[in-house]
Write a structure and sequence with these properties.
By secondary structure, this protein is of the alpha+beta class. The chain folds into 5 domains: 84 residues, GIY-YIG endonuclease, CATH 3.40.1440.10; 141 residues, no CATH class; 102 residues, no CATH class; 185 residues, UvrC, RNAse H endonuclease domain (Nucleotidyltransferase, domain 5, 2-Layer Sandwich); 56 residues. It contains 20 helices and 19 strands. The strands form 4 sheets. Strands 13, 14, 15, 16, 17, 18 and 19 form a 7-stranded mixed sheet that branches. The protein has a 6-stranded mixed sheet with strand order 4-10-9-8-11-12. The chain has a 3-stranded antiparallel sheet with strand order 2-1-3. The longest helix has 30 residues. It starts with 15 loop residues before the first strand and ends with a helix. The relative contact order is 0.06.
């Protein structure tokens, strides 16, 4: 808690960034504002009306300071740099899990090179990309240098051959113009550099036409060796150009952002289109420390991608939602581009199809990212140890079972159990439960499922032969769980504690519950929930387990519901005789549509008596 809150009169009414620090002077939150006075004052007036994350941040904060700048755009840039520098726990963060490869032309040098590079970008050079992996870009560069033979050697090698007065092998095989030994004028060399840059931007028609003309002229002059060399250059060029995926018949230049997210992460993918061709893709992963709207996710991804990854900003950026504080982001990108930047949401046609493609690609990359994290042995070990420490477990939970319930208005109650061993999901041990608890009794359903599972475990251990209802076989469960996780809050945890205590297994099984809203974990004996870091491997592991239990329960519930609907017969409805049934089916279409109709739809069937409509409603409700 901040000891001495700043007086509004002491805060400048100007744009800037502000920094909250904790008692150890660590930066815990960085923000920006058009008016520092107005924004900071809002933190200290109605604190109880602030979001939960903001309240938690203020409870941790011990001091606040600010940096005044000249404009909102400068405040935006300063905020990003401060977040990148300090990585505050309460800010959304870009997770830098890889360095993207670019094709660079070193135009800052007298004799520019064409190279593949990663990391920091040097002022004065031209960068193209980023590309998904280096193999594709190296193959493309190899093809293009047959037409645009720029040097690719290091400066050290260039200087060595310059002193020797002899060119390297690349010159002799027509893969370099030989600037080190004066075989080319600087003007001609610069024209070759400009030509390569044009092709990398997607403009290749001019060079294809020129090479075709040269080939025809050489053939007509009976210079067949020259014509063959030009033909080979033309073939290599066309192969390189064909690698650029054509997405528009027009010569459009734009970027298109798609993203996929869950409660912990947002994975964004930016597709770069130049002259109607895809020339690169860029990705960013955001660790979320709070729920974000679509507008806030889009803003965070744009800031991360154009600050860290993408060097060239086009005039048009297609987005799934307009960014939060759009004018500030627009001004920043306009300044970065030195030209107007416009945001658009595609509504129809090809741009909408591209947006769908970007969203699907983001989902694929998101799943791959999760799969890599889930299957990496070191990451799994780290997560299990972290979970043991955070929850105060006796040992690392090598076998975890997670339980979830599913129903629709109290009908077709089902439970699911999913299993994780050594940090990996073990699908062969998943189990499904039909629940006989009363309607809308989540606690009763959870108690029934846990009791059935743990009774079976006691029988396996030879401890519950006399327990009523215990199964006679024990083959389905081979190992006891170290940790049981139930989906829900303190209520579901209390149910689990009671069942375990009644069966005398308190010392054998440890318990926890995961509340979905704020990803809070409750454990027995602690009133306050445990909040793991949003970027922690332990939280990723527990959430993966909980989501899998939910998916498995929903799948089983839908299966039972489908079977239930198949058993329904209109003949069971009182007052619905053959003629009325024929009339009803003619109007509605099928028995399944009748028995899945809403009350409003049934009320609209005025060709039936009100009493019959009431009977249909009752049957529909009973079957749900």
């Amino acid at each position: 808690m901040i000891n001495e809150k700043p007086k509004p009169s002491s805060i400048p009414d100007e744009p800037g960034s502000y920094i909250f620090r904790d008692g150890a002077q660590r930066v815990i939150y960085v923000g920006k504002a058009k008016s520092l006075r107005s924004r900071l004052s809002s933190y200290f007036t109605n604190e109880l009306q602030l979001p939960v994350k903001t309240q938690a941040m203020l409870q941790t904060a011990a001091s606040v300071e600010w940096i005044q700048v000249g404009s909102e755009v400068e405040a935006l840039i300063l905020e990003y740099n401060l977040i990148k520098q300090h990585r505050p726990r309460y800010n959304v963060r870009l997770r830098d899990d890889k360095s993207y490869p670019y094709l660079a032309i070193t135009t800052s040098e007298r004799w520019p090179r064409a190279i593949v590079t990663r990391g920091m970008q040097r002022k004065g050079d031209k960068y193209f990309g980023p590309y998904p992996h280096t193999r594709a870009i190296r193959e493309t560069l190899d093809l293009l240098t047959k037409t645009f033979p720029l040097r690719s050697c290091s400066n050290t090698k260039f200087q060595r051959h310059e002193k020797m007065g002899k060119p390297c092998l690349a010159y002799h095989i027509d893969r370099c113009l030989g600037p080190c030994v004066g075989k080319v004028e600087e003007k001609e060399y610069r024209e070759t550099v400009a030509g390569l840059a044009r092709v990398l931007r997607g403009d290749s028609d001019w060079i294809v036409q020129r090479l075709e003309s040269e080939m025809r002229q050489a053939a007509s002059d009976l210079e067949f060796e020259t014509a063959a060399r030009v033909r080979d250059r033309l073939s290599s060029l066309r192969t390189a150009v064909e690698r650029q995926e054509i997405v528009s018949a027009q010569t459009d230049n734009f970027d298109l952002l798609g993203y996929y997210e869950d409660e912990l992460e947002s994975f964004g993918q930016l597709i770069l289109v130049r002259r109607g061709k895809v020339v690169g893709r860029a990705s960013a992963v955001l660790d979320k420390v709070e729920p974000l709207s679509s507008e806030e996710v889009v803003e965070s991804l744009l800031r991360s991608l154009y600050e860290e990854v993408v060097s060239e900003v086009p005039s048009t950026i297609f987005v799934p939602a307009l960014p939060h504080e759009m004018q500030v982001v627009q001004s920043w990108l306009t300044e970065k581009r030195a030209g107007k930047v416009e945001f658009k949401i595609p509504k129809r046609g090809q741009k909408l199809s591209l947006m769908d493609m970007a969203q699907k690609n983001a989902k694929i990359e998101f799943d791959r990212s999760r799969a890599r994290r889930a299957t990496d042995h070191n990451t799994r070990s780290e997560a299990l140890v972290e979970l043991q420490s955070a929850l105060g477990l006796k040992q690392a939970p090598l076998r975890i079972e997670c339980y979830d319930m599913s129903h629709l208005q109290g009908t077709n109650y089902v439970g699911s159990m999913v299993v994780m061993e050594d940090g990996l999901l073990k699908r062969s041990d998943y189990r499904r439960f039909k629940v006989s608890s009363p309607k809308n009794d989540d606690y009763g359903a959870m108690e029934e499922v846990l009791r059935r599972r743990l009774k079976r475990e006691k029988e396996r251990l030879g401890e519950n032969e006399n327990i009523e209802g215990a199964p006679s076989t024990i083959k389905r469960f081979a190992y006891p769980p170290n940790l049981i996780v139930v989906d829900g809050g303190k209520g579901q945890l209390n149910v689990a504690v009671r069942v375990v205590a009644e069966l005398g297994m308190t010392d054998q099984v440890e318990l926890a519950s995961l509340a979905k809203e704020f990803e809070e974990i409750y454990v027995p004996g602690k009133e306050e929930p445990i909040r793991l870091s949003r970027s922690s491997q332990a939280l990723f592991l527990v959430k993966l387990l909980r989501d899998e239990a939910h998916r498995f329960a929903i799948t089983f519930h839908r299966l039972l519901r489908a079977k239930s609907l198949k058993r329904i017969s209109l003949d069971e409805i009182p007052g619905l005789g053959e003629k009325r049934k024929e009339l009803l089916l003619a109007q509605v279409g099928s028995a399944a549509k009748v028995l899945s109709a809403t009350d409003a739809e049934i009320d609209s069937w005025t060709f039936l008596p009100s009493k019959v409509r009431s009977e249909i409603k009752e049957q529909v409700h009973n079957r749900r």
